[in-house]
Amino acid sequence: MLIDLILNRKEGVKYNAKTFYDDIARYNFDCYNNVLQALDSGENIDIQRALMNYIIEEEYNLKIVDYIIRQNWL
User: Fold this and answer.
1) Where are the domains of the chain?
2) 68 within 8 A of 58, measured Cβ to Cβ
3) 62: burial class by Cβ within 10 Å (0-12, 13-18, 19+)?
4) What is the average pLDDT score of the chain?
5) pLDDT at res. 20
6) How many CA atoms are closer than 13 Å to the CA of 12, on its beta-carbon side?
7) Out of 34-38, 41-45, 47-51, 59-63, least confident range
8) CB crowding 21-44: b at 16 or more within 10 Å, else e
9) How do residues 7-42 score in pLDDT, each as one tens digit?
10) What is the widest separation between alpha-carbon atoms in the chain?
11) Are 44 and 64 in contact (CB under 8 A)?
């Protein structure tokens, strides 16, 4: 799931934007479409917003948002 990919990165798993995209796409959940579209757009701020919205909508711990905005997702 997307939250696992985010938390894995936070815990030190090596991050690759292409692999991240492919892993999200493989899940094929509608709630991930905004994140996939943001990754396609090429703007880090759009990706951060989509990830933050996902965290908020799914009611995960908001401390994860702080991590998201400190990272480059491209």
Assistant:
1) 2-69
2) no
3) exposed
4) 96
5) 97
6) 0
7) 41-45
8) bebbeeeeeeebebbbebbeeeeb
9) 999 999 999 999 999 999 999 898 899 999 999 987
10) 27
11) no
